[in-house]
Amino acid sequence: MNINTTIVTALFDIGRDNWKNFTMSYHTYLHWMHNTLSIDCNMVIYTEEKFKDEIYTHRKLYDGNLQKTKIIVIPLEELSAYKVYAKPLQELMYSEEFKKKASFDVPEMNQYLYNVIMFGKLHFLKDTYDNNYFPGQELLVWADAAGLRDDIKDYANIVWPESSRIDKDKITFFSHHSNISILVEADHALSQMRFIQGTCFIVPVHLVNALAKDFEALVFECLGKGYIGSDEKILDFYYLRHPELCTLIKCTWREYYNILKPCAP
Prior knowledge:
The protein is α/β, with parallel strands linked by helices. It has helices at 26-37, 49-60, 80-93, 96-101, 107-110, 112-119, 121-131, 185-189, 208-224, 231-241, 256-259, and strands at residues 5-11, 42-47, 69-73, 139-143, 171-175, 196-204, 246-250. It has a seven-stranded mixed beta sheet, with helices on both faces. The longest helix is centred in the C-terminal third of the chain and has 17 residues, at 208-224. It starts with a strand and ends in a 6-residue tail after the last helix. 40% of the residues are buried.
């Protein structure tokens, strides 16, 4: 029996097209996002006014009446994640003490808005759950807007994910390794090593609130100790504290799509 799933995704302008490294134009983001928008699934999309029209236009090519689509248009500064994380992240990242610890010139170490959106994934999932945009939903699938980067024919009108392969009682994480082992959490947060992929993960609705609460607590635990890393590091820490609530699937970047594609081996 297929399980009622909803894909949750988001696109906001955090100035990435003007960064000195790890730059990416929003034209590129939207090009890749067309792949995600072409999938045949209930979908909740959080975005801002500047991206609204293009998202509507491309989603309507695959969901003409938008019966499977809810688009939430909201300014970045009004996001609950911005209100919770922006100030403490900015204060930490701009501090001289943290700059001495941050050995890597990467967005999660020097672009606080990047982490606002990355940490906001759990806020988006919680909002989707709280507002019950698609009644009867059993699983919420976080999927990065630009996470699918092959030819659109691989995604267009595909019913995805094949939810009968998903454990509806546990959180499904995709990991670069079969096991997660961390010796010193501060060192892990500040490193470029990661296990769980933040690009996509799947949460049964009955665990959404607990995951969101625990994730936020872990973020502030790290901030309180004077360090921070990407959302993936926080998910690594979550997994080690709650392995009984999780299923870990080993795969490479973006392989999750084929793993949960209908008729995949």
